[in-house]
Amino acid sequence: MNSPERFVDRFDVILLDLMDTLMFGGNRFSHQQDYAHTYRKLGGKYHSDSEVQGIIGRVHDIMNAHYANPDYYENFRPASTYLTETLHSLGLPQTDAARLHNVFAHHELGHVPDSHCRTLRELATTHRLGLVSNLWSEKALFVRVFRQCRIHHLFDTLVFSSDHSLIKPSPKLFQKALTHFADCPPHRILFVGDSPERDMAGAQALGLGTLLVTAGRSTTYSGMQVFDVAELPGI
Predict the structure, then answer these.
(1) Residue 5 pLDDT
(2) Are the C-beta atoms of 200 and 222 separated by less than 8 Å?
(3) What is the residue-wise DSSP string for 22-73?
(4) Lowest CB count within 10 Å: 113, 128, 149, 197, which one?
(5) Peptide bond preceding 196: is omega within 30 degrees of 0, i.e. cis?
(6) Which pLDDT tens digit goes with each residue over 144-196?
(7) According to the model, what pLDDT value does residue 3 have?
(8) Contacts of 200 (CB under 8 A, 6+ apart)
(9) How large is the C-alpha radius of gyration of the chain?
(10) How far is CA 57 from CA 35, 195, 231, in A?
(11) Phi, psi of 5 (to 5 degrees)
(12) How many CB atoms lie within 10 A of CB 53?
């Protein structure tokens, strides 16, 4: 007797979102965050604590406003660019700009749970995998974490918005990933993410299958849902 077809068996490719889908505890930005402490831990000495707090806070506030504005969906530049512009506007030199960007990236960074790493390894035995992430920082720190978790090699492609100045729900960012799966029709590609507006709507506009990760959040989304990515192999 054949086993019943799983939901994931309808697809040949699974594309995943990153933050709050695979990676958690990131996006630690608020007026209560001690960015200066992170700066010192990373060896920063050039700027005063108040300068670091003001610089990182201002970069985040500007990017947060642009992130919510559809006019920037296809012109959302990486944090390093906003940081350069902010230093210039404040009359500060670019002397330690790279370290300040690293501070920003460390506050955006989260962790990938072991359960999710195991899930990816299991899915990679039956599906081709890709990632499409709205990442504000440059990708280097995140790629390093993927390598440390031994999941980097599981992905056919990693598409980070900071490489392209595009953010979901723009179909152009999804299309960056689809070029790596040109032999696969859109209806055989599943996108898994946590945002109905950015992930589900953007993927559906290109004819992809969709799966919403809710983590217990209430939602009006009427499509297929799971509580956690770890459920994927069993549905």
Answers:
(1) 82
(2) no
(3) TBBS----STT--HHHHHHHTT--SS-HHHHHHHHHHHHHHHHHHHT-GGGT
(4) 197
(5) no
(6) 999 999 999 999 999 999 999 999 999 999 999 999 999 999 999 999 999 99
(7) 67
(8) 191, 193, 210, 212, 221, 223
(9) 19
(10) 8, 25, 37
(11) -65, 130
(12) 18
